[in-house]
Structures are given as C-alpha cells and as structure tokens.
Amino acid sequence: MSNILILMGSPRKHGNTSILCDEFARGAEEAGHRVEKINIADKTIKGCLGCNGCQRNGGKCVQHDDMAELYSKILSADVIVLASPIYYYTWTAQLKAVIDRTYALLSTMHNKVFYLLSTCMSPDESWCKMMLDSFRNYLACYDETVTEGGYLFGFETGEPGDVRKSEATMQKAYEMGKGV
Ligand SMILES: Cc1cc2nc3c(=O)[nH]c(=O)nc-3n(C[C@H](O)[C@H](O)[C@H](O)COP(=O)(O)O)c2cc1C
User: Fold this and answer.
1) Cα(29)–Cα(35) distance, rounded to whole angstroms?
2) Distance between CA atoms of residues 172 and 27, nearest Å
3) To test the ligand 1 pocket, which listed residue (91, 120, 157) has its Cβ within 8 A of the most ligand atoms?
C-alpha cells in the first residue's frame, strides 16, 4: 500500500484536471492505496524568495504559510501526482509556487514516484512539450530515487467537464491510478 498525494493545481475545483485526478484516485483506491488530494488554490502558498535560507538551515523555509503542511505531506508520500492545466505552455502559478518552494527539499526528497496529470485546449501532445520537459527536468533536480511513474494529458478541454468527452482519457487516468 502506497501513500499517494495529489497536488491539484487548477483554480477550478471541479474542472478538467480535478476530474482526471479523481479518476486516478478511484483506480488507486481500488488497488488498495491511500490517496489524499489537495486543492492548492485553497492554500496560501507564497512564491520562493530565492534567499537560500533553506539551503543554509537544513531545508527549513524561512516563510510561514500553508507550505509547512505540504512539506510534511510531500516527505511522507510515496507517490506524488502533480496535476495542473496548461497555462501558457506550463504550470498554473498556484502549482508552480509549490514546485519552487520544494527547493527546500533538495537534499531530503528521496524514494518518490511522480506522475503528471494535465489538461489543455490543444488537440495533441505536440503542444505539451514544454510542460512535459518541465516535469522531467524538475524530477532530474533530485537524486535517482525520485522517478517518473507516468504522465497523461487531456486534450481539447475548455469548459469544466470537457475531459469526460474522451472516454479513453478517463480510462487512462483510472488505469494509471490502478497501476501505481
Ligand atoms: C490563463 C490560461 C492559459 C492557458 N494556456 C493554455 C495553453 O498554453 N495551451 C493550451 O492548450 N491551453 C491553455 N489554456 C486552456 C486550459 O489549459 C484548459 O482549458 C484546461 O482544461 C483547464 O483546466 P481546468 O478545467 O482543470 O481548470 C489556458 C487557460 C487559461 C485560463
């Protein structure tokens, strides 16, 4: 049994990315895993100050906000799902703030499998290269025990719920969760 943490970075709580997360979670729970999904937009998470304070004092960020709770959840998770719609080819600002703040975990993030779940207006993966590169380059910043489990894009999703129109995408999200 794995502890799975889903960091859901869309400000639309019932939007397409959230729907994909729920399908992933349904599969993972059926497979016996414990899943926690956090709507990042509900949290107060400031941008990284770049002060390097965390690098000097054993990984403790100098800022006091909801990231404190996320640091401990991230460190105790076996599997982390980064879930974000594509905003101008990359993460939402909300999830990017979390990613930047994990700079404090550079030397303490070990033994985790990361997944990327994402949705976008674009019709195919050729438009998602920057997002996928960013995800992979992020993982490459940690040691070799931090690995990629998989990724999934939902295409042509403008209005909340559009992702349900693609049964194949919904099925892939479910199976990805089940296969953790
Ligand atoms: C500010 C903003 C920027 C966006 N940029 C892109 C983009 O670069 N590429 C794309 O394909 N879709 C883009 N979209 C569309 C969203 O990625 C798409 O509608 C997504 O499904 C929204 O996810 P959600 O329903 O989970 O909020 C953008 C939407 C917004 C609001």
Assistant:
1) 7
2) 10
3) 120
H/E element holding 177?
Answer: helix 167-178
- On whether the CB atoms of residues 48 and 96 are closer than 8 A, the answer is no
Measured CA to CA, the distance from residue 99 to residue 15 in angstroms comes to 21
Residue pLDDT, tens place only, 120-165: 999 999 999 999 999 999 999 999 999 999 999 999 999 999 999 9
How many domains are contained in the chain?
A: 1
Enter the tokens of residue 40.
């990042």
DSSP β-ladder status, 34-39 and 79-85? unpaired
Q: Which domain holds residue 106?
A: 3-178
Q: Which of 175, 55, 49, 40 is nearest to 115 (CA)?
A: 175
- Read off the pTM: 0.98
Q: Which atom of ligand 1 lies nearest, measured to the CA of 88?
A: 8
Contacts of 124 (CB under 8 A, 6+ apart): 155
Indicate which CATH number applies to the domain containing 21: 3.40.50.360
Which of 166, 136, 167 is closest to 150 using CA atoms? Answer: 136
Residue recorded with tokens 């403008």: 158
